[in-house]
């Protein structure tokens, strides 16, 4: 008599574009997948909303460094997406070189959030660049709108990566939830405070942190985000959001 299906193998899903933040997140995803012997899924979603915008005759894009505008044309955008896909393919090959790591690149086209949520399962770990995905259009280190929705809506653990602050092994600062295994977390060194921390209090507490990561559950994150929508952008270590 069958005992039913066995447990689903853990996957590390890295949601990618070719921004610095996103490619730094890929390196973190590779390290995590390699350590826990999980499959790595590199997910590149061609933004259908952006493609639709390019169909309007008045659409234009603004250069992030120059401030100059130019028409946003479907042909040019398709070529740009193809180049992004090629760069991501090369980055993935370089990131996994020399490792015996199960991995695959999955390319799809659609609305980024819905496609990513459709791919993620409760047993996955989803890795995002802090400003990736929308950073090409948003000129700051704030958490982009796409990443923000995924952090709050994903059915699985989410790791938010910031390439400005390279990870250093250290404590996992734990504010409720179960701490996952991470390649740059040594031990569970600090438990949650006896009282709920406000967003500004959490920011002050972590202001000088340069090692390890913050682990926080989604309910607590929603509360903190209601107090200060940009609190995650000012935390100088990786943030791990658990269900």
Helix/strand structural class: alpha/beta
Structurally, how many domains make up the residues? 1
Largest beta sheet: strand ordering: 5-2-1-6-7-10-9-8
Question: How helix-rich are the residues, as a percent range?
Answer: 25-40%
End-to-end Cα distance: 34 Å
Low-pLDDT segments: 1-8, 132-141, 184-194
Mean pLDDT: 76
What is the number of E strands?
Answer: 10
Question: What general outline do the C-alpha atoms trace?
Answer: globular
Task: Give a structural overview.
The structure is a single chain. With about 240 residues, the protein is α/β, with parallel strands linked by helices. The chain has a single domain (about 10-45, about 85-240), classed as 3-Layer(aba) Sandwich (Rossmann fold). Helices cover about 35% and strands about 20% of the residues. The protein has 7 helices and 10 strands. The strands form 2 sheets. The protein has an 8-stranded mixed beta sheet with strand order 5-2-1-6-7-10-9-8, with helices on both faces. The chain has a two-stranded antiparallel ribbon with strand order 3-4. The longest helix has 23 residues, at about 75-95. The protein is globular, with a radius of gyration of 19 Å.
């Amino acid at each position: 008599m069958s005992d039913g299906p066995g447990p689903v193998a853990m996957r590390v899903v890295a949601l990618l574009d070719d921004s610095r933040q996103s490619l730094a997140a890929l390196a973190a995803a590779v390290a995590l997948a390699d350590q826990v012997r999980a499959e790595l899924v590199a997910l590149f979603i061609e933004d259908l909303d952006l493609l639709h915008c390019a169909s309007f005759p008045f659409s234009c894009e603004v250069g992030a460094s120059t401030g100059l505008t130019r028409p946003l044309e479907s042909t040019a955008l398709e070529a740009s997406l193809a180049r992004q896909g090629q760069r991501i393919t090369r980055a993935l090959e370089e990131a996994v070189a020399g490792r015996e790591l199960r991995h695959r690149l999955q390319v799809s086209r659609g609305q980024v959030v819905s496609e990513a949520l459709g791919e993620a399962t409760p047993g996955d770990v989803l890795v995002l660049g802090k400003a990736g995905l929308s950073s090409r259009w948003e000129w700051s280190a704030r958490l982009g709108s796409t990443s923000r929705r995924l952090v709050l809506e994903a059915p699985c653990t989410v790791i938010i990566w910031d390439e400005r602050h390279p990870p250093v092994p250290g404590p996992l600062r734990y504010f409720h939830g179960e701490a996952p295994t991470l390649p740059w977390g040594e031990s569970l060194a600090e438990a949650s405070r006896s009282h709920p921390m406000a967003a500004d209090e959490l920011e002050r507490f972590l202001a000088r942190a340069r090692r390890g990561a913050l682990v926080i559950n989604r309910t607590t994150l929603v509360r903190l985000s209601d107090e200060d929508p940009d609190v995650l952008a000012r935390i100088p270590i990786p943030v791990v959001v658990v269900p």
